[in-house]
Specification:
Elements (H helix, E strand, L loop, with lengths): L1 H35 L4 H27 L9 H4 L4 H8 L2 H4 L7 E3 L2 E4 L4 E3 L16 E4 L4 E4 L1 E5 L4 E4 L8 H26 L5 H30 L1 H12 L12 H5 L7
Antiparallel strand pairs: 1-2, 2-3, 4-5, 6-7
Helix pairs in contact: 1-2, 1-6, 1-7, 2-6, 7-8
Length: about 270
């Protein structure tokens, strides 16, 4: 559902902004301590420029992930027609006698017909790769409910399909940059903060303040995400709580996975 995708995107953006604000705050604190120690102004401006450049690059990648086409195949006359004989026969059957759609896609040489998107996935005319050729290049995402090319997996952090090969197509390149920045950005902020604290005579006091503040921010963030999850899937969360608090749970009950909770697959009975 669209609401789940939007909530996934908001959660990912929220956490990214939280990390960036934390790193930027650490760097500004470092600049303050450096100013007290009369460190050269050029060094202070350099530290700020580096941390802000990393944050802007990360925001650019997130915007590209949210707005760029991951390689979804659109429904057009060229992609939907001609209909396979199996599907045409299914449509010709009276509604009361149709039954379920075929479970497997229809393969015709190098192309395949997705019975859920109702379109042909044809690699002809598209750039070919040795790793993903023919029908293996396409996949139907059960969460986005669309077929995409060069599918990797659905990112529940940003609510988008991760697709592409190398650095040339799809949005995989932006995910790779974000993964790298997820290590570089906090490391830069903490390194600069440590260097600034060492310049201050009251570094033990400020170290404790930053540690307590960081723990408080993570606790607040976890509570906010829990509230978002309860809003998105209230029936699933209520079922989970009833299951956890029930004293009559039998020993044969299977454990409830987080994916089942997140996508509403927990029965309320």
């Amino acid at each position: 559902p669209r609401r789940i995708k939007y909530t996934e995107s908001l959660c990912g953006i929220f956490w990214s902004l939280s990390v960036h604000l934390s790193c930027i705050s650490c760097t500004h604190a470092d600049v303050y301590f450096m100013a007290e120690a009369n460190v050269a102004e050029a060094i202070r401006w350099f530290c700020l420029a580096v941390i802000y450049a990393q944050a802007l690059l990360s925001m650019y990648c997130i915007a590209c992930i949210q707005r760029c086409d991951p390689g979804a195949i659109e429904r057009t006359a060229e992609t939907c027609l001609p209909q396979p004989a199996e599907m045409a026969a299914w449509l010709a059957t009276p509604v009361a006698d149709r039954g379920m759609l075929p479970e497997k896609n229809i393969i015709d040489g190098s192309k395949s017909f997705c019975v859920r998107c109702w379109l042909w996935r044809d690699p002809v005319g598209k750039e070919s790769t040795a790793a993903m050729a023919g029908v293996d290049r396409f996949h139907h995402c059960s969460k986005c409910q669309r077929c995409v090319e060069h599918y990797h997996h659905h990112c529940t952090y940003f609510g988008r399909c991760k697709t592409g090969t190398g650095w040339r197509n799809g949005n995989l390149r932006y995910f790779r940059i974000l993964i790298g920045l997820s290590f570089i950005h906090p490391s830069t902020g903490l390194s600069v903060l440590t260097a600034g604290l060492l310049q201050s005579e009251s570094w033990p006091y400020w170290t404790g303040v930053f540690l307590v503040g960081s723990v408080a921010c993570y606790i607040v963030g976890a509570l906010l995400l829990s509230l978002v999850a309860c809003y998105m899937r209230p029936d699933a969360m209520a079922a989970l709580l009833r299951k956890a608090l029930s004293k009559e749970t039998s020993g044969n009950d299977a454990p409830v996975s987080m994916s089942a909770i997140w996508y509403g697959k927990v029965s309320s009975q």
